[in-house]
Amino acid sequence: MFQNPEQVLLIASVILFFSIFAGKAGYRFGLPALLLFLGVGMLFGSDGLGIQFSDPNVAQFIGMLALSIILFSGGMDTKVAEVKPIASQGVVLATLGVLATTFITGGFIYWLFGLFGKYVTLTFPESLLLAADMSSTDSASVFSILRSKGVYLKERLRPTLELESGSNDPMAYMLTLLLIAYIQSGGMNIWEAGLSLVIQLSVGAIAGFLLGRLAVLIINKIDIDNESLYPILLLATAFFTFAATTLCKGNGYLAVYIAGLVVGNAKIVHKKSMGTFFDGFAWLWQIVMFLTLGLLVNPHELLPVTGVGVMVGVFMILIARPISVFLCLIPYKNFSFKGKLYISWVGLRGAVPIIFATYPMIAGIEHAGMFFNIVFFITILSLLIQGTTVTQAAKWLDMVDEPERKDEFGIELPEEIKSAMSEIDITPAVLSHGNKLMQLTLPDHTLAVMVKREGRYFIPKGNTELKENDKLLMISDNDEALLQAYDSLGERLYNEKKLNNVNNVPMCQCANVDTLSVLNRNWHIGTLNNWHIINIILSDRELGYT
């Protein structure tokens, strides 16, 4: 179809542009970006504008690369402090929940095809295989919608769902491979299957942890002159972790997620830049993966499976998912009935089930083409029904929490810095003792760094007049002093960014740092411009006070 590489690049760039703009438009209507990306792929596919793509091996390879990056990036974004209180619940949902969903849905599929088996009849293992393909969830797309709408959830639902969606792919992957092996071999000992699951999980978890720790050690010790190479080094680590673990008969997806979790919660150099790189790179590969899957399907082939797809999809949404969630969460009392209902409703199907549906096709399993089309249809159905009602369901079930305080300045201190930072609203109570900065009662070792006023940012001086509704950025070399500042100002609403103490951090070596020596409420930074102070704040070293 394409005569030269320039045409390929041109078409690829047009599709990417189109996908991004479609995703942006979709946010306004509460549509998951995945649905729009799949739609764009189908639009440009064989039944649309005519791009011919029908190779499941290429699609699977692209999906493998994409999932490795996405899971690693998801692990980096997961904060252990947030998920620790609900770690057991998330793990149970990601393992036993997937297993329960597979067997409940598989049983229904077996009964359904037996009832309407004039067209095709499935064995029970084949029914389980189809169910296993669809057993993992993609809750990550939900939170992009919630964040775009400014919705926050009660009962630690967000970290629970994020942990589940980030860690249930390995279980679904292993079930898919085991069932394919069972069907091809004509049988498998249940103890052999159980042992294989344990080995894959154990090797994957251990390899992920060890390689993650090794990555942290290498990144902190290697001292590369070119800082832009650090994200590339971390990317190589992610690919190596996945490939090496898989070759060692472990679960590569679990390993790469745990490795990302270890790296993301460790103190490493250039962490912010590497996180930004992986966020953008993960989004790129999500788009590529979704477009590829959209190109792979032939929309006219979805029509014959519409009836089956609707019945199985509705069963999964209304029966299989809720039953598995409620069964898994019986021992836990920290979720209300409404909270469990919301967890049940947010079990969206995404790109991962479609990728897993390519494995039976490559393995030559009978009815694999039909499996792929059913999984694709149910994914679209799930995104249309559940994805578009995520926000409304949270409101109906009274699961909407008070919004988190907005970060007005967008500044984060590196983890190597001991200092604490906060943003404070200037209220009449704060201004009760005077409206000039020098008149504010600030304790020692606390510095007012920046002011935001009507969308404009500036560095204040001692005689700067503060106004009501101003936002004040403060920094202190310890949390105690910062808390004293809140008390002295009579302020209770603030956004605090705390960092753990670390040892042996070199002092900052920046020009004009000594002008910060006057750390009382009459301090003056007239010799420093905005970029000086911001560079000090964003430095990878501790603030040095002369």
Structure description:
- Among the domains are: 5-45 and 85-179 and 274-401, Up-down Bundle (Na+/H+ antiporter like fold), CATH 1.20.1530; 420-537, Alpha-Beta Plaits, CATH 3.30.70.1450.
- It is built from 21 helices and 7 strands.
- It has helices at residues 5-28, 33-44, 56-77, 80-83, 87-115, 124-133, 140-148, 157-167, 169-185, 190-222, 229-247, 252-264, 271-296, 306-328, 337-345, 351-356, 358-363, 368-385, 390-396, 479-489, 530-537; strands at residues 152-153, 400-401, 420-425, 446-453, 456-458, 471-476, 494-497.
- Helix 3 (56-77) crosses helix 11 (229-247) and helix 6 (124-133) runs antiparallel to helix 9.
- The longest helix is centred in the middle third of the chain and has 33 residues, at 190-222.
- The radius of gyration is 27 Å and the shape is elongated.
- The model is unreliable at 493-546 (pLDDT under 50).
Give short descriptive properties of this protein.
546 residues; mainly alpha; Na+/H+ antiporter like fold; Alpha-Beta Plaits; five-stranded antiparallel sheet; two-stranded antiparallel sheet; 58% helix; elongated; disordered C terminus
Topology, element by element:
Blueprint: H1 5-28, H2 33-44, H3 56-77, H4 80-83, H5 87-115, H6 124-133, H7 140-148, E1 152-153, H8 157-167, H9 169-185, H10 190-222, H11 229-247, H12 252-264, H13 271-296, H14 306-328, H15 337-345, H16 351-356, H17 358-363, H18 368-385, H19 390-396, E2 400-401, E3 420-425, E4 446-453, E5 456-458, E6 471-476, H20 479-489, E7 494-497, H21 530-537
Helix pairs in contact: 1-2, 2-13, 3-11, 3-12, 3-13, 5-6, 5-8, 5-9, 5-14, 6-9, 9-10, 10-11, 10-12, 11-12, 11-13, 14-15, 14-18
